[in-house]
Amino acid sequence: MSSYDSYQTPLATRYASKEMSNLFSLKTRYSTWRKLWLNLAIAEQELGLNITDEAIEQLKAHVDITDEEIVAAEKQEAIVRHDVMSHVHVYGVSAPAAAGIIHLGATSCFVTDNADLIFLRQGYDILLPKLATVIERLSQFALQYKDMPVLGWTHFQPAQLTTVGKRATLWIQELLWDLRNLSRARDDLGLRGVKGTTGTQASFLALFHGDHDKVEKLDQRVTELCGFSKVYPVSGQTYSRKIDIDVLTPLASMGASTHKLATDLRLLANLKEIEEPFEKSQIGSSAMAYKRNPMRSERVCSLSRHLHSLLQDALSTASVQWFERTLDDSAIRRVSLPSAFLTADIVLTTLINITSGLVVYPKVIERRINAELPFMATENIIMAMVSKGGDRQECHEQIRVLSHQAARVVKEEGGDNDLIERIKKTAYFEPIWAELEHLLDARTFVGRAPEQTAKFVATDVAEALKPYEDVIVRSKVELNV
């Protein structure tokens, strides 16, 4: 039987990066359990328990689990029906000098929950540089096109002009908030630490013969050995599942930002103004050879919606935990937590690819502006006529009549907007004929969009990206498709 004979999640097999897939792999999970058992033994030895140096050295020598040991643990689990105890047994076989002290005083959640918290923080460490990379590449795009006028849209109806670069800053600003939120959530994570079966540390108090100070030092020392600066002061058997809400909320919120960005790109692709990269040999449709579907942006939208949905798992699970713990959280967390990070990883990796090669079509943008700008310029034309001594109300009526005639040509006859030609043929407007070219210069309709873009990138973006200057993904990202 091959791997093709059973279901495999496409999150791991088709899309996610190797580093994120590896983080949530069985080998990483079980090796992390062993590191926790090693850290517990080190701390307990330091605080005076009878644990030999030989035991510590054997634990260190076998801290990275092998494929053979995983198979052995699976066989043991089939006998004892307990995953953690099966791994305690197999680790003890590999480190016989430590067999009697592995998991000393601990409950299963010592390894399962602490390991989850480690994975969540490491997951953020993978995501944050990728999000910073998307922001950096969009920022370069924004600067490149900060001066290029483009038709703005409100209600997806033509509105006043903006610039291609300024529009990109709207995407960037939301992603900056996501960068802040992910960073805060990452730094807010603590370790469950050494709390015992119901969180009272009773087993450790017994090990240290009632010495409360040593129990507290054990908690802190294991936390330090695991690379955390803080430990949750109280817990039941598990860390509060409300922490999972805090972890998944910024990811779900980021999914809203990425969905909006990718949706805009899909609409722009339909307008033929901006397209995502299209590879030389890429096929857009099996039937329609001419098509250039925005498949990457569609993937971002699809998986961003999945990312939203996973937050509900955390909300529902946290709300139904009973007293010190219940086990109905276990199965769903095995699915939703890895899925959230794998999905976020795929979304960001795809966006890195997209933002590394956005294609802009200036002539299409210019043509669309020219089709709408005459209507937008009518107020400027009225003001220009008034400055030449014209009557504002009379001028307004003249423009209204000509505008409706031009609109009828566009909507009913499918013709081009000929309002300016009509103005040039109407003697009433002869005083401003020579000024029409200036009055219709698109660059005069974008306000401070170029200046806003330049300042935003130079200040807000630059400040936010400072911590990530050395970890922004510089090389071309190849998608696993």
TrEMBL record:
Question: Which keywords belong to this entry?
Answer: Lyase, Purine biosynthesis
PROSITE patterns for this protein: FUMARATE_LYASES
**Which portions of this protein are annotated as coiled-coil regions?**
none
GO BP terms: namely: 'de novo' AMP biosynthetic process; 'de novo' IMP biosynthetic process
> Taking every annotated instance into account, which residue ranges of this chain make up the domain Adenylosuccinate lyase C-terminal?
373-457
Biological or metabolic pathway of the protein? Purine metabolism; AMP biosynthesis via de novo pathway; AMP from IMP: step 2/2; Purine metabolism; IMP biosynthesis via de novo pathway; 5-amino-1-(5-phospho-D-ribosyl)imidazole-4-carboxamide from 5-amino-1-(5-phospho-D-ribosyl)imidazole-4-carboxylate: step 2/2
User: What EC class does the entry list?
Assistant: lyase
Q: Give the highest taxon in the source lineage.
A: Eukaryota
InterPro entries reported for this sequence: AdenyloSucc_lyase_C, Fumarate_lyase_CS, Fumarate_lyase_fam, Fumarate_lyase_N, L-Aspartase-like, Pur_lyase
Keyword Lyase belongs to the record: yes
What is a single molecular function from GO for this protein? (S)-2-(5-amino-1-(5-phospho-D-ribosyl)imidazole-4-carboxamido) succinate lyase (fumarate-forming) activity
Got a GO cellular component term for this one? cytosol
Q: Which Gene3D superfamilies match?
A: 1.10.275.60, Fumarase/aspartase (C-terminal domain), Fumarase/aspartase (Central domain)
Q: Which reaction does it catalyse?
A: (2S)-2-[5-amino-1-(5-phospho-beta-D-ribosyl)imidazole-4-carboxamido]succinate = 5-amino-1-(5-phospho-beta-D-ribosyl)imidazole-4-carboxamide + fumarate; N(6)-(1,2-dicarboxyethyl)-AMP = fumarate + AMP
UniProt xrefs under SUPFAM superfamilies: L-aspartase-like
Which EC number(s) does the record attach to this protein? 4.3.2.2
PANTHER family referenced in this protein's UniProt entry, alphabetically: ADENYLOSUCCINATE LYASE
Q: Which family does it belong to?
A: Belongs to the lyase 1 family. Adenylosuccinate lyase subfamily.
How it assembles, according to the record, is: Homotetramer. Residues from neighboring subunits contribute catalytic and substrate-binding residues to each active site.
Q: What is this protein called?
A: Adenylosuccinate lyase
Q: Which organism is it from?
A: Tortispora caseinolytica NRRL Y-17796
